[in-house]
Amino acid sequence: METKQKIYLAEYSDVDKHRFLQDIYPMRKPVVLKGLNVGDCTHKWTIDYLSKTGGQKEVKIHVSEVSQMDFIRKNYVYRTLPFDKFVLRAAEDKHREFFVSEHEKYYLRSLGEDPRKDIADIHKQFPDFAGDIQIPQFFEKDQFFSSVFRISSPGLQLWTHYDVMDNFLIQVTGKKRVVLYSPRDAPYLYLSGDKSEVLDVDAPDLIKYPLFSQARRYECYLEAGDILFIPALWFHNTVADGFGVGVNVFWKHLPSDCYDKTDTYGNKDPSAAARAIQILDRALKTLEELPEEYRDFYARRMVLRIQAKAYSANYE
After folding, report:
1. Sign of the CA dihedral 84, 174, 76, 123?
2. Which residues contact 212 (CB under 8 A, 6 or more apart)?
3. Distance (Å, rounded) from C-alpha 209 to C-alpha 207?
4. By CB distance 3.0 to 4.6 Å, which of 80, 84, 100, 277 could disulfide with 51?
């Protein structure tokens, strides 16, 4: 069941830093960048090369019986495998060795050495093949936040979510479909934190999630070597078309002191936003002291005040 007509993302070829920063970046919309030099990784990072080069370093992975991973309901388990064995398993459609099912799906999202303190950096966690990838330097070095190495089983779909930093999704090998939703469509996505409760964006349960039909669906298909620019706060959902390898590069769009200094994943709300949400929660708790008629009236006044003071007409 389709919710609305798909809007395919604009594509740009052979973009340099100047054109990106002057013409594309200010629009604050996702675009696909083609023809950029991302290094030798697109042809070197074969299953055989990765498994041999990565060696037996232990990696923590998501394992799910089904292809649609759901972060809210946690329909997966965490397991640990040597990297070389993980790569071989992730490339299989059916497994002789498995944790929960012979058709289970695998997902690696690289982490820092101590995930509570360290960010993901492909040059630190996977130095043996990090030199194969060339990341476009379209932002200043002090804006860099993390470079996340990802591997997905064929057909794996990841939950819809947003990040608080801008990022490049570099599709290194394989193909990937990406569905995106504007930050302005947050009211229709049934959010739980930074994630949408609507797991199946292709056949949503519109009885349970009726407002989802109003969300505008943006879409693109990434080939090996393509780069998707995802501005901060844009929701995205991905499906791997075959065994896929990618690298996300996140950078700070806002001044550094705007971000939570304990955030190693890049998904905690900016400090000011987190404080505002806490204040709102306290205000809503205070409204519970009133009878229903008064609570409803003053809640509506609060909504109108927020709309008047904080809503913007400058973004689609």
Report:
1. positive
2. 3, 188, 189, 190, 198, 204, 206
3. 6
4. 84
Is residue 159 within 8 Å of residue 201, measured between CB atoms?
no
Strands 195-196 and 191-192: antiparallel
Q: Can you list the alpha helix ranges (DSSP code H) found in 213-291?
A: 271-287
Q: Per-residue pLDDT tens for 233-263? A: 999 999 999 999 999 999 999 999 999 999 9
Backbone angle region of 196, left / alpha / beta, with phi > 0 → left and psi within -120 to 50 → alpha: beta
Judge whether 270 and 254 are in contact, CB under 8 Å.
yes
Separation CA 243–CA 86 (nearest Å): 12
Residue 218 has what pLDDT? Answer: 97
Mean pLDDT for the stretch of residues 144-156: 96
Task: Give the model's pLDDT for residue 267.
Answer: 87
Any idea which residue has 């409204």 for tokens? Answer: 287
- What pLDDT is attached to residue 81? 96
Number of H helices, E strands in the chain: 8, 14
- In 3-state terms, what secondary structure has residue 215? coil
CA separation for the pair 233, 193 (Å, rounded): 12
Percent of the chain with pLDDT strictly greater than 90: 94
Does residue 227 or residue 267 have the better pLDDT? 227
Where does the chain show beta strands of DSSP type E?
Answer: 7-8, 11-13, 31-34, 58-64, 76-82, 105-109, 144-152, 157-161, 166-181, 191-192, 195-196, 218-222, 227-230, 235-251
The CA-to-CA distance between both ends of the chain, in Å, stands at 25
What letters, b where the CB count within 10 A reaches 16 and e where it falls short, cover 51-85?
Answer: bebbeeeebebbbbebbbbbbeeeebeeeebebbe
Q: Mean pLDDT across the stretch 133-141? A: 94
